[in-house]
Design goal:
There is one protein chain. By secondary structure, the protein is an alpha/beta fold. The protein is built from 13 helices and 8 strands. The strands form 2 sheets. The protein has a 4-stranded parallel sheet. Strands 6-5-7-8 form a 4-stranded parallel sheet, with helices on both faces. Strand 7, helix 11 (231-248) and strand 8 (256-258) form a beta-alpha-beta unit. Helix 2 packs across helix 12 (259-266) and helix 4 crosses helix 5 (80-95). It is globular, with a radius of gyration of 19 Å.
């Protein structure tokens, strides 16, 4: 089995500790080992930093990739934004000899080198291809059959090498959620952006137009909660609901869970053990359904 280093990204370890706890516990139950990417920095994030300095953005991403390469490890991330950045940097630097030489000239000053020997993998790919859906299904101890769940894959999960491959990872995400035994609920706007990137330019549009539109449709679908696979999207849905209530008197009250949290509970790990109470959305509304199976 391939050996992986995990780049957690900034958001998980600073704002969403339950996602990290759930991921570690989930992988442990599935007997899958990974190593933290020691010395990693911000990916860097795929929005404003690339506009401020494109080559600096490449250099920071290449440095992170080089840390995995030096350890002869594949690089895995649980964050869609990190995946987008690292995927683009990795593929571009492999193909652009001139840019790669310039970036390596910068990295040389800190004794690092981008070689292009590692692949960038989102955790949904690792769960599907390295662990396997059959193995995961056999490990489920607490099917969540009484939970109605809406899905939000997030824009960056569609990043791919070919047009034909664009929806492969979102489909894996859906398959993984199905393994937990939940009832999937369609609401028609699954592919619509959550509005998180728009915050950089127009916060009101991000919240009142984009986010509220999605939340309204999810609420109308009578889903018990929303499942995401991106920490940035999780922040937008959780903190965005607080802001919508405080600023615009729009109260949706939709619990938000990450894929790893749903899977951890389905694998028999208690909500308390992964700290679901740390969420800013009303996860307590569905705790009984999570624990009751």
């Amino acid at each position: 089995m391939k050996q992986y280093a995990m780049l957690w990204g900034c958001t998980v370890q600073t704002r969403l500790p339950s996602i990290e706890a759930a991921t570690r516990r989930m992988l442990n139950v599935l007997d899958f080992s990974m190593r933290d990417l020691e010395g990693a920095s911000c990916c860097p994030e795929p929005y404003t930093s690339a506009l401020i300095g494109r080559e600096l953005w490449y250099a920071l991403a290449a440095r992170n990739i080089s840390l995995a390469e030096a350890r002869k490890l594949e690089l895995m991330t649980i964050c869609n934004g990190c995946y987008d950045t690292l995927f683009e940097a990795n593929e571009t630097l492999k193909q652009d000899d001139t840019l790669r030489k310039r970036i390596n000239s910068t990295l040389e000053k800190i004794d690092k080198e981008f070689k292009g020997s590692s692949e960038i993998r989102h955790i949904v790919e690792v769960l599907d291809e390295d662990i396997g859906l059959d193995r995961i299904a056999a490990s489920v101890r607490r099917p969540l059959s009484n939970l109605r769940v809406a899905l939000h894959p997030g824009c960056h999960l569609y990043r791919s090498k070919t047009v034909e491959d664009y929806d492969r990872k979102p489909k894996i995400f859906e398959s993984l959620v199905r393994l937990t035994g939940v009832q999937l609920v369609k609401y028609g706007l699954e592919k619509m952006c959550c509005g998180y990137p728009q915050r950089q330019a127009d916060e009101e549009m991000s919240l009142k137009t984009t986010l509220a539109t999605k939340l309204q449709r999810i609420q109308e679908s009578q889903a018990d909660c929303l499942a995401v696979v991106c920490p940035g999207c999780c922040v937008q849905f959780e903190y965005g609901q607080i802001e919508l209530r405080q600023r615009y008197n729009l109260d949706f009250g939709i619990p938000v869970l990450h894929l790893a949290e749903l899977m951890a509970v389905a694998l028999g790990i208690s909500a308390a053990d992964i700290g679901l109470e740390t969420h800013r959305s009303p996860v307590s509304k569905i705790t009984a359904k999570l624990e009751g199976g």
